[in-house]
Design brief:
Rossmann fold, seven-stranded parallel sheet, 36 helices, 1080 residues, Penicillin-binding protein 1b fold, alpha/beta, 6 domains
């Protein structure tokens, strides 16, 4: 929305008229801050023509897009710039798709109202209209298409054929069903045929395989390579614009300078257009040249001057900042742009307290602008809330998350993988095979497992719940178990005993907390709600759930002790700040304990900014502070004059005391020493404790520890972050040069991690030699405190391009401007260390890159190779789950369970360990274990998934597991619908498989353990006769009960035909047991 007093300025009308009357460029001067986007939004509204807004910098183009969206009230297109090097492969797909989507809109005559672009993006070629048409196929319902021809088109256009699609660029064909995932979509497309005719087109969710929406027609675009300038497949973006487009150049001199610099830096790495050629092409359109300084002299009818002034820097502290706003409003109308209702509510409250009449002179709007301005002619000030209160945080755009295949760490079995059979122990998976039993007509699929001494066991797919992939706590591969041997039983018993000891210790800690009378904090106040509403990003579902769990803990009258696990950047800090806010508002103090000095400073900055609107004091205790400052803060903490203290292990010193400590927040507890952990242990029963861990906890371990450890888990990635392109490569000066130059070209910064202080200065000199015009700083933990603080401050403030540092930045700096990281001698790091370091980049809107550099001539160990392969493979967002699984395999489970448990995990496998843990917890708490044992069916019917229906063994294993895990009839119905959706109508063998699963679900409610057909009898083994016997009241044959655990039903021979027997069992067992009716 254009601010109303400004919208009436005659100079805006004059500008629109001059553009309509004048053929050349109209010169504009005086615009400052976000006033230029506001003028363009007004111009688009007045003229109804497409406007291309060109900026000099990549980041500026993104900022302008956000400003334009606020002032226009509508989405604005952005021409993304290539940020990749030649050969970056999949990393290029996301940006290429964004550019291609915009080009398709233009060639289809659907030009956006406003397009924002950097000059770099315009210099890069785009696909020509001819190329776009050649790489696009249109499909409509009812259209005849030859299936083989469609398959050939996908192959010819470089789609990858898989059994199940997982990512953009994949396609799959299963009989008459095609799945395709083109790069322009966030969800894939499913096309179903009847013969050679398209019967339906559906969008579906790749993680569940379920259809979301039906379409009548669809266009599918193949990914095309970046064509060289001059090729018939390449075009200049300018050539695709409508003829009446208006081009707005924001500071033409800077645009030309940056274009030349960009071409010089890339050095031919990309096929760019000439700067002069591009500017000449832009000159063919009606254009506006906006000059901030040094505007050329023009006639009155060929230019407009807007007397816009910049705003003075606000104080930042809430009381002073509000006073400055009121001073501004003494002779002007002031508009404050708040990001959300939380910010607006708090601001209005502060204004009301300071001046009851302020609402007449200060208005608020919901949105976001980057830089405020003073429009002198109408005496109007527009300013962003973040400017008033010095909120320097990065605002990320919310972009649609591209769906991806679910991470299933347990049953992605390949021949040769180790597995654990619940009864027989550790084996090697060989294959899936369909077999018929001896003396039986029954056909079933089996998992073939090899044990010690080449012994083979065929496990029916109906018992797949007995088999799990082996995940141990170390790289050492265990020996195979012996079928019928005693070693497996003994290993399970030892692990069970160790688990009980661990569970007992956790329960004792919990009991001590329960016995201590804690503080019951009140329900959320209006301040708390305002504070939470001011969170600048959309909350994920996980964050909402975890915030509620923490809130309930604080409102209970016993001390909280909660572990909050979540991948890097998933919102743990925000949730800890909300807890700190509640405790501080109640009047108690908060201590935040972090492992590094740099992280202490980062948290201090973050907490201070978020709490700037509220009367809470925040202090930082670390070696970056002078002894005098430390002494003063310790005294304030002792006297209760500071609300929140953030610090390193210095917080645990004996001289540090709090007047009334209410909450202790511990970040990465496993990184503290034994002495520090003992001090923490003594605090746990008396104050609220929230522990943060960036190692995601696998769901199975989480579930098995319910009741003895309060654990929350954040597993949903923020939807506005791109994955980090990760590459393992040998040290290469050309690669380093290209990576740094690319980052400099997009106004970014670089981390170069070298963890050896002895030669770190030499590495920095190498960087200066490789890229002579980049500014390099060095930082490491052995520097003097003030020296290190100065290095970090200068880098954060943008005074250097590259920071050569040790792992001091691992859990520290959070800078959206840093989006490339080189990790030197990467084979010397653990997997979690690499994951943490990589998580330091990718916090902004740009594609981030992580290069794992290996020494040129030194060989690396197999263990290091596995670590590096894992980190390179799992570059997608949310990779933490798989990282955690590989970490269990390679490094151990010490962080979560303690090192003493690692040997037992290695002996029985992670999944079995979790089952033993769950059993121990239930036993110690006196709770019955849930009965999830499968009902054994031996009724002589064939039930399996034919390869002709689902060719992929991995997919069949997944379906068998889902069948076995179904506990309710509606779950089975959902599974049947999913199968029909993804694979088409079920063949008889699959329908029978689902029928048997239904019989198992029905039998379980009657506490029936097994059903065996032994003509002429059906033999039922039951757990409790008093529950089961009611099911047999209307049985179609004679019933006898030879003992309290067995029921015989004698039937005529005709009943033993497959479909008839299934119908008979369904009818008998479909009634509802009396116990279930009573419970409901």
């Amino acid at each position: 929305m254009v601010i109303q007093p400004i919208a009436g300025d005659n100079k805006l009308t004059t500008l629109a008229r001059q553009i309509a009357d004048h053929q050349g460029a109209v010169a504009v001067s005086g615009l400052w801050g976000s006033s230029a986007p506001m003028v363009v939004a007004d111009l688009a509204q007045r003229t109804g023509r497409t406007i291309l807004y060109v900026s000099a910098h990549l980041t500026e183009a993104e900022n302008v897009r956000e400003d334009l969206e606020f002032f226009s009230g509508a989405p604005v297109a952005l021409l993304s710039a290539w940020e990749t090097l030649p050969g970056d492969g999949p990393a290029a797909g996301e940006i290429h798709a964004e550019r291609r989507r915009l080009c398709v809109s233009l060639t289809n005559g659907a030009a956006p109202s406003i397009i924002a672009s950097s000059i770099q993006a315009l210099l890069q070629p785009v696909p020509s209209a001819k190329s776009l048409a050649a790489h696009t196929i249109f499909v409509k319902v009812g259209q005849p298409i030859e299936l083989d021809a469609l398959t050939e088109w996908f192959v010819d256009h470089n789609f990858t054929r898989l059994d199940l699609i997982e990512a953009p660029g994949d396609f799959a064909r299963r009989g008459d069903i095609f799945d395709v995932f083109d790069a322009d979509r966030t969800h894939p497309i499913r096309i179903e045929f009847f013969g050679d005719t398209v019967e339906s087109i559906r969008i579906f969710d790749v993680s569940t395989q379920r259809s979301i929406e039906r379409l009548d027609e669809v266009s599918i675009c193949a990914a095309t390579r970046v064509a060289d300038r001059g090729s018939s497949e390449a075009a200049c973006f300018i050539d695709l614009l409508p003829a009446d487009t208006i081009v707005f150049l924001d500071n033409p001199a800077e645009i030309q300078e940056l274009a030349d610099l960009y071409r010089e830096r890339t050095g031919g790495g990309m096929a760019l257009f000439e700067t002069g050629t591009l500017l000449a092409a832009l000159g063919k359109f009606a254009s506006v040249h906006s000059w901030r300084f040094g505007a050329p002299a023009v006639k009155d009818d060929e230019g407009v001057h807007f007397p816009v002034r910049s705003l003075s820097r606000f104080e930042g502290r809430s009381a002073e900042a509000v006073g400055e706003l009121l001073d501004l409003a003494s002779d002007r109308q002031v508009f404050v742009v708040c990001e959300n209702e939380g910010e607006r509510s708090r601001l209005l409250e502060l204004l009301e307290d300071a001046d009851a009449n302020s609402s007449k002179r200060i208005e608020t709007r919901i949105g976001f602008i980057h830089r405020g301005f003073d429009w002198s002619d109408t005496k109007t000030v527009v300013v962003g809330h973040h400017e008033v209160f010095h909120r320097t945080r990065q605002r990320r755009r919310i972009r649609k998350a591209v769906a991806s295949h679910p991470l299933d760490g347990w049953m992605e079995l390949e021949p040769g993988d180790l597995v654990v059979h619940a009864t027989h122990g550790i084996a090697r998976f060989q294959k899936m095979e369909t077999m018929r039993r001896e003396n039986s007509e029954k056909t079933e699929e089996y998992l073939t497992l090899e044990f010690d001494e080449k012994a083979v066991l065929h496990v029916p797919a109906s018992q797949i719940d007995l088999v799990q992939r082996y995940v141990g706590a170390g790289a050492h591969k265990p020996t195979l178990s012996k079928l019928g041997g005693t070693r497996w039983k003994k290993s399970k018993e030892k692990a069970g005993e160790a688990v009980i000891e661990l569970a007992e210790a956790l329960l004792r800690t919990q009991a001590a907390r329960e016995a201590h009378e804690g503080v019951s904090y009140p329900a959320d106040t209006s301040w708390q709600r305002e504070f939470e509403d001011a969170f600048p990003y959309d909350e994920t579902d996980d964050q909402i759930v975890v915030a509620d769990e923490i809130n309930k803990d604080l409102q209970r009258a016993r001390p909280m002790d909660r572990l909050l696990c979540g991948d890097v950047g998933y919102g743990k800090t925000e949730l800890s700040m909300r807890a700190a806010f509640k405790v501080a508002e109640y009047g108690k103090q908060v201590a935040v304990l972090v492992p590094t000095t740099v992280l202490a400073e980062q948290h201090y900055k973050t907490f201070s900014e978020r709490l700037a609107d509220y009367p809470f004091s925040v202090g930082c205790l670390s070696r970056f502070r002078t002894p005098k400052q430390q002494k003063q803060l310790i005294e304030e903490a002792r006297k209760g004059r500071v609300d929140i203290v953030i610090g390193t292990h210095r917080l645990l010193s004996k001289d540090v005391e709090f007047a009334d400590l209410g909450l202790l927040i511990i970040d990465e507890e496993q990184r503290f020493g034994v002495e520090h952990k003992e001090r923490l242990k003594s605090m746990r029963s008396t104050v609220e404790v929230l522990t943060l861990s960036a190692t995601p906890i696998p769901r199975t371990l989480h579930m098995s520890m319910l009741g003895i450890r309060d654990i929350s888990s954040l597993q949903t990635p923020p939807v506005d972050r791109r994955s980090i392109a990760t590459e393992v490569c040998h040290y290469n000066e050309d690669l380093i040069r290209q990576g740094i130059i690319r980052e400099l070209s997009r106004d970014g910064q670089v981390y170069f991690i070298h963890n050896f202080v002895r030669d770190i200065e030499g590495v920095a000199d190498d960087i200066r030699r490789i890229v002579p015009d980049c500014r390099v700083l060095v930082g490491h933990g052995q520097m003097k405190d003030r020296e290190l603080e100065d290095v970090m401050r200068r880098f954060i403030e943008g005074e250097a391009d590259v920071l050569v540092a040790t792992t001091i930045i691992e859990s520290g700096i959070d800078l959206p401007s840093v989006n490339t990281i080189f990790i030197n001698i990467a084979d010397r790091y653990g997997l979690s260390d690499l994951h943490q370091l990589r998580g330091r980049v990718g916090r902004g809107s740009h594609r981030a890159y992580c290069y794992l550099l290996l020494p040129k001539k030194r060989t690396i160990t197999p263990k290091a190779a596995r670590r590096l392969k894992a980190i390179e493979e799992f570059s997608e967002l949310g990779a933490g789950f798989r990282i955690a699984m590989r970490d269990l395999e390679i490094r151990g489970a010490g962080n979560i369970l303690g090192p003493q448990q690692s040997g037992h995990i290695a002996a029985v496998g992670y999944e079995m360990y979790c089952k033993l843990m769950e059993r121990a917890v239930h036993e110690l708490r006196g709770e019955p274990l849930p009965d999830l044992a499968q009902v054994h069916l031996e009724i002589g019917v064939s039930a399996f998934i034919p390869k002709s229906y689902i060719p992929s063994a991995r997919a069949r294993i997944d379906i068998y597991r889902r069948v076995v895990m179904c506990q309710k009839l509606d779950e089975l119905e959902r599974l049947a619908a999913d199968l029909a959706d993804a694979y088409g109508p079920s063949p008889k063998a699959v329908s029978t498989l689902l029928d048997l699963a239904e019989i198992r679900v029905l039998a379980r409610q009657w506490e029936i353990r097994s059903i065996v057909a032994d003509e002429p009898d059906l033999i039922f083994s039951v757990r409790d006769l008093s529950v089961a016997q009611a099911a047999f009241v209307d049985a179609p044959g004679s019933v006898r009960m030879p003992d309290p655990k067995t029921i015989y039903v004698r039937l005529r021979s005709s009943y033993f035909e497959g479909p008839t027997l299934l119908a008979c069992l369904r009818k008998m067992l479909s009634k509802t047991p009396a116990s279930t009716e009573a419970a409901s």
